[in-house]
Amino acid sequence: MELQAAARVAGYLGAKEHRTATIDLRVFGGSALTSTIEVPKDRDQASMACEIPVTYVPARNTIFLSFALAYAEVTSSSQIFIGVNALDYSGYPDCRPEFIEAFERMANLATKAGVEGRTKLTIETPLLLMTKAEIVNKAFELGLDFRLTHSCYDPDAAGRPCRRCDSCFLRQKGFEEAGLTDPLCA
After folding, report:
1. 74-84 pLDDT per residue, tens
2. Residue 158 lies in a domain
3. Vertex 170 angle, CA 167 and 176, to 5°
4. Is 121 part of any domain?
5. Which of 2, 36, 163, 166 has the most crowded Cβ, counting Cβ within 10 A?
6. pLDDT of residue 37
7. DSSP collapsed to 3 states, the chain
8. With contact defined as beta carbons under 8 Å apart, do 57 and 63 qualify?
9. How high is the pLDDT of residue 89?
10. What gap in Å lies between CA 103 and CA 69, rounded to an integer?
11. Alpha carbon 111 to chain centroid distance?
């Protein structure tokens, strides 16, 4: 569902190019999103803040950023954008500023362009320190059609959100605090 939503949003926003790399993290498992572990439901925000949840996919953002780094080097790009968020999130360690800063340092040490001094790569995190409400408001301001998006960890077969997982809870909280109605839950 996430891949389909990404393609819809890229098309809607007129992306010059949209590529999908095949990365099947189910080969490792270790997460409710990559194995048969049940997705937690009906947790409150306090419960979400207590521990790293079973929906954390081990090293997912490291893997994604590594693929993006390889592509950035091939295309001589100096910026990689990632939509991590460190405020209203489920406690994932690879969504923290410290992780992004460390990856950026490593990226400049690990690439030919970085070592030769041709490119100083930066990891751009425009959503990092925004609340979900701020993200929703910014997306609304930019004209994003929220019907194209997907956030749910446990959608039904038709892709409809469960409205009970942590991601649905945080999305709904963001819309409520922004004073908007989520068209996926209307």
Report:
1. 999 999 999 99
2. yes
3. 140
4. yes
5. 166
6. 96
7. CHHHHHHHHHHHCCCCCCCCCCCCHHHCCCCCCCCCCCCCECCCHHHHHHCCCCCCCCCHHHHHHHHHHHHHHHCCCCEEECCCCCCCCCCCHHHCHHHHHHHHHHHHHHCHHHHCCCCCCEEECCCCCCCHHHHHHHHHHCCCCHHHCCCCCCCCCCCCCCCCEHHHHHHHHHHHHHCCCCCCCC
8. no
9. 65
10. 10
11. 24
What pLDDT, on a 0 to 100 scale, did the predictor assign at position 91?
80
Q: How far apart are CA 115 and CA 101, in angstroms?
A: 18
Q: How far is CA 39 from the centre of its chain?
A: 17
Is a pLDDT exceeding 70 seen at residue 139? yes
Q: Distance (Å, rounded) from C-alpha 3 to C-alpha 102?
A: 27
pTM summary value: 0.91
Total structural domains within the chain:
1
The sign one gets for the Cα dihedral 122, 106, 129, 186 is positive
Least confident of 44-53, 110-119, 154-163: 44-53
N-to-C CA span, the chain: 19
CATH label of the domain that carries residue 17: 3.40.50.620
> Containing domain of residue 99, as a range?
2-178
186 in any annotated domain: no
Mean pLDDT of the region 43-65: 90
Q: Which amino acid is at 22?
A: T
